[in-house]
Amino acid sequence: MDEVDRDSRDAPRLDRLHGATLLVEVVRFAKSWAIPLVLLLFVAGREQGAPWWLWLGLFGAGSSFLATAIRFFTLRYGVVGDRLIIRSGIVFRQNRTIPVDRIQNLHLKSGVVHRAFGVVDVRVETAGTGEAEAQLSVIKAARAETFRGQVLGGRREPGSPGEDDRGELVRRSRLGELLLAGATENRILVLVAALWGLFEIGQDTGFDVEGMINTVGDRLPGGAAAPAAVVALAVLGLTFFGLGWIASILWTVVTYYGFTLRRRGRDLRKTHGLLTRFESTIPVARIQAVRLEASLPRRALNVLQVLASTAGSKADDHQGGTSVIAPLLQRSEADDFCRVVYPDMRLEDVRLERVHPRARRRGFIRLLIPGVVLATVFLVRGSTWPWVALALWVAFSWVLARARYAILGYGVFDRFLVARSGVWTRKLWIVPQEKLQAVRVERGPLQRVLGLATLQVSTAGGGALSGVHIADMGAPEADGMFEQLSRAAARGGSGV
Fold first, then answer.
1. Three-class SS state of 171
2. 377 located within any domain
3. 198 and 222 housed in the same domain
4. pTM of the predicted model, to two decimals?
5. How far apart are the C-alpha atoms of 439 and 443, rounded to whole Å?
6. Which residue in 19, 101, 255, 274 is a FRET match for 109, CA 20 to 30 A apart?
7. Can you tell me the distance from the alpha carbon of 321 to that of 299, in angstroms, rounded to the nearest whole number?
8. Which residues contact 168 (CB under 8 A, 6 or more apart)?
9. CA separation for the pair 322, 427 (Å, rounded)
10. Which residues of the chain have pLDDT under 70?
11. Are 244 and 185 in contact (CB under 8 A)?
12. Strand 94-99 and strand 323-330: pairing?
């Protein structure tokens, strides 16, 4: 008898998904497809009929719901000894075994409907892939806590006397902090993209949006069309900015409401969310890099945000594969906060080296080229105003290149590589050398002429924090750093 059959005979009974799975999927389907369904019903009777992409999308959604139903009736899961076992499938039976000690992160997610039924979605992540290794949707909330203890119990350490069983409280974000975080991080581009999408949908469903705009323009008083258009564009721009600002605040508050970060033994546990609650368990040892970042408004207020990435983790989907571990933090608190992750890191002792002074020249040339090309195109067409615009662009490029040079910095401090970049949004990376997966040096054509190079390092983390680059170092310095970090990475960061 093979190993799978022995497991089937000897293992305790595996659990099923909760009965609310199908209802949760119906609600999820309705939420995702409410607008397309309304559009379908509205345009189905029109002469041109519904667009093909709408039918295709509904077919895909229906297929997804059918797959969820099959998964509900067939999936079984449970922790047997030191392994997580998941069985599923009807025609093609699948038996997955995940060693518990390979599990990097556990993410629990519960929306309003989930909480009404006392259930959660559970995502299991390992270092083998950036995708979820297992998705359990949905299971009882109490069962999820038991499951979390079975998976992570071996990594926990006893807390101090009187300590909350959930762990030591590291950070709790107040509502005022979240309002400030949203107000200083405008997501106007997201709103513009959404409005553009609505414009395209209107065009596809038969609404002559451009005709409506032209009709309004034709009704303007004679001779006032041009000034009115300028005023209208200005008002539209301010409206977009205002709506984007409000949307940013609301998004931040809804996403990070009730944010708490706790430490229990060797794990960090993060909880946040107003409508949808998120709970993530992150092993500290699996954190590959930490990044402190602050936009210009945040720097003026002496606040910043802290993000982290773990091995093989997508972490927070809305952050592009990185996990926010502090939505907003006073700059004076940054050093103590970073010691929660890296106890031997002292930010106040970091003094970064600047890149080569010729970085200013390279940055200026790179910014200048697009302006020169665009001005040349307009000059060929007979315009004369590009000369003024080009002069302003030259001045802007020079100022920006000098600002970029002043910010770029790097250094190795004990076992940590630290790098800084960003003009509008200042970013400071902290990467333990033992987490480095690859190191390389790149030289573009202009860099070779100027004797510069870019040092690239990568970790096993996911998202934007998986790689760090230090641009425009002097070529000898980049080669020396390459050798140093390569040796440290090969020896696991010891004895640089």
1. strand
2. yes
3. yes
4. 0.77
5. 14
6. 101
7. 24
8. 159, 160, 262, 263, 264
9. 14
10. 1-12, 32-58, 60-61, 127-132, 153-166, 186-233, 237, 312-321, 382-385, 462-465, 492-496
11. no
12. unpaired
Listed in sequence order, the residues at least 6 apart from 90 whose beta carbon sits closer than 8 Å to its beta carbon are 70, 74
- Round to whole Å and give the CA distance between 410 and 486: 16
Residues 400 and 423 in one domain: no
What is the full DSSP assignment across 52-111? HHHHHHHHHHHHHHHHHHHHHHH-EEEEETTEEEEEE-SSS-EEEEEEGGGEEEEEEEE-
* Tens digit of each residue's pLDDT (9 = 90 or more) over 257-292: 999 999 988 889 999 999 889 988 888 888 889 999
Angle at Cα 130 formed by Cα 22 and Cα 323, nearest 5°?
85
In Å, the largest CA–CA distance within the chain is 90
Same domain? 27 vs 129: yes
Chain-centre distance for alpha carbon 107: 15
Q: Are residues 348 and 381 in the same domain?
A: no
Same domain, yes or no: 297 and 187: no
Q: Is residue 165 part of a domain?
A: no
| 368 and 290 within one domain | no
Query: CA angle, corner 415, sides to 410 and 421, nearest 5?
Result: 20
323 and 417 share one domain: yes
Q: What total number of domains does the chain contain?
A: 4
Specify if 160 maps to a domain: no
Q: Is 157 left (phi over 0), alpha (psi -120 to 50) or beta?
A: beta
Q: Are residues 242 and 379 in the same domain?
A: no
Please provide the size of the chain in residues. Answer: 496
For residue 105, the enclosing domain spans 3-155
